[in-house]
Amino acid sequence: MHEYIPTPYEAAMRLRAGFGHSEPRDRESGSSPYRRRTIRPNGTPDWHILIIIEGKFVTFHDQKQEVHLSPGQAILYQPHATQDYMLREDHESGKTFWTHFFPEVSMMPFLKWPTTKSGTGVMKWEVNSELHHQILNACERCVSYLNSTMYRNRSLSLLALEEMLRLLHQVHPDAVVGHLDDRVATALQFIASNINKQLTTESISNAVGLSPSRLSHIFSLNMDCSIMDYIGKQRINLACRLLSDTILPISLIAEKCGFSSAYYFSARFRKMKDLSPSEYRKIDRRKL
Q: CA-based angle 89:94:95, to the nearest 5?
């Protein structure tokens, strides 16, 4: 058996999943104010999904707008979006499936959820339907694989998570669910494998077997951004994960993320995050 050695990009990928139980402290009545509330003003660097299994929850936006969630509903928070939700006061207990993850390339078309006025994505389906049981089954396998000692357990868990996302898209209000062009998927895989190297539209198009202009066109149609904008965002997202999860020096993080110098990396990071890499690391560490 060959030993699997992840690339720096893969090593920074995180996946967490589980089932959450919310109830008043000391099992008091449903009107108790001591119920679990999750508040993350700046969100998290990954994607976050919450599926309501039992009870009713409410999510807040800017402490003004409220979205009420019942069983058969799921909410999707994009990276760095405010996360603020809790069990509704008129319910004594609740159960949810939750996951924080960095999506695989094949998941991207299934993360374009219909959004509420607050900007968060919400899906809704019939409880007790066949689809409902299939979604919960995928959630259970996602958690089970992740907590197992099986070889490549994270990959198995990601497969179950993608299955759950594809099932949720069965109830997407759009008539046509977007499909990621295979050539764009190949380009994304090439970018992920070479994120620490110099990348150009020409080098990526050569790997895909298309002209630079043709690849640029279909890439923009599929990803709603240019190739170089996507690469820039991916490099900064990777840098955020390395700053949060490692003690690597800034200069080495810049190199692993494909920046030509630590100075250029710091300038680009500040432009996108309004913080220097060092400042971001200090603030992120305080949240732990």
A: 155
